[in-house]
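REQUEST
  id: r-88c1
  op: predict_structure
  target: SusF/SusE family outer membrane protein
  payload:
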Amino acid sequence: MKNKILYLLIAIVAIALGCKKSDFDDVSKGEALGNFTITAPANNAMLVLNSATPSAKLTFSWTAAKPGISTAPTYKFVAALKTGNIDAPIIELPSDNAGASATLTLTQKQLDDALKAKSIADGVKTDLIWAVKATNGSVTVSTTPILNVSITRMGDGVSNFLLYGPVSSNTAIVINPNSTTDLLKFKWQKSFPGVASSLTKYQVKFVAKGGNFNTPLFTYTSDNNGLDSALSVSYKDISDKMTAAGFTDQASPTALQWTVEATSGNFKKTADYVNDLVITREVKIFLVGGDTPAGWNDAAAIQMIPDASNPGTFFIYVKLTTGNGGFKFLNQQQWPGGSLNSSDWGMKPGTPGDAVVDNEANIENYGTSGVYRVTFDQKNLKYYVQAGRMGAVGGATAAGWNPPNIFPSQALTHIATNKFMGFVTLTGGGEFKLIDGANWPNGGGPVNQERDYGKGATEGVLLETGESNFIVPGATGLKRIVWDGTDIKNLKYAITDGTMFLVGNATTGGWDNSVGNALLPAMTYSGNGKWTVTTNMSVGEFKFIFTKGSWTNEYGGTAGAIAEGGANIGITSAGNYTIILDEFNRTYTVTKN
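RESPONSE
  id: r-88c1
  status: 200
  body:
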């Protein structure tokens, strides 16, 4: 009896378990669908359809709805008026791939046609609600929440367009902020209107790098009252706009970005890209006056060197001759009142050292005639007139790294405006720098305005800031050092052996300047830049060269004046001659004994 009861219980449990399994299968026969969400566009998106770009694509996307066991869902985009019901849509469209994809891609024209079919007029903005419905035949689920979108039907429009130039760059464009004749030119691709009768007009917008073009720093209407796809603006105009926008420091580079907005009727569209634009306003300062080599001739005013370590400051090494009315500063080679919009600065009456642009006096009380370093700090309206000199300082020199000890023993000689040459004994392989005062400058721009110079990354390039020490080439001995700032944007230096030779068919060595050719006798240095030799000369021609084996440094001359790379010097009668070369005064003499 007990066994029968046991068997009966087992049978009942088996039947119960079998019934539970059957119930599960019944539920799963209807395929389930998981929830899914919209990914783009975001809620409250505003879509303005462009009649000039009907083929441009719009994409609606969402996450995939997780299917049940075997039936993949299909999707449908639905949209209704915002005042309506999403279950009574005015637009119903299957997703891509016949409803299988979790995206819907439409051209602007397709979406416009769908709205047009619902009697929505051209150019009208319509507020809609939208969602995506997924179904597998058994179950239908919808995205939540329902999103808002506003769509403006095609009316006016403009085609896509690109910026041409200035090309996007972080390299500064250098402009003269005072020039009304030099132009900065902008160019872009022409954009065509969607409605032919609505002409396209352009506005060029500027922001600080990373700024918002909805609130630009300043704007320009393009040329031809906005109709041309180009803009020409004077350097002064854009500089004034930058200053008004808060960029008052003209000596520092300004990083901007620019783009163009095209408008046709009520439709606005910006260019496809934004271009970087860095502008450096190169303030030019010139020295002019009766005490200077230029005299009071504004067209001959001498441009000063911009101070790399103190932007907004300018300096010049120049010979001043007192008693001729002093000097002033100009920002153009033209007196104020001319077409170049120039200004001039002089001494603030009663306060020497202070500069002023209006009611100024000439700068006269600075000392006796001589060579001076003249400095003009335009930002702080200060000027300095101090001894103009240059000397070698460093471990390769007899005075070491002690500036007070280098003058006059290791001084160079001023041979022209912004040019020094000197002869100093240096230790081969040693290091040195050039300095124009008896103290090391400090980084803050010292009151004495002293400066030191070294070598740039390239041989021959002279730097005031970011420099390295000069290395003495060759063996220990007399070296010729040249500090050359005659090209104010490319300061240069040269270090050569302190030697000088004659070469040419009038000499015993001929035109062979090779290292092995004796070129005897060599010229003898007698100090103060003077070289002398007495030797027999033949009928012919000759030149002076610094170093055997090189034509890089050589002098020719005409009528007693030497010039680098100058003409051959003729000997018309053979005999014994004494030849004197003066490198400092740039002269030579050839005297038959």
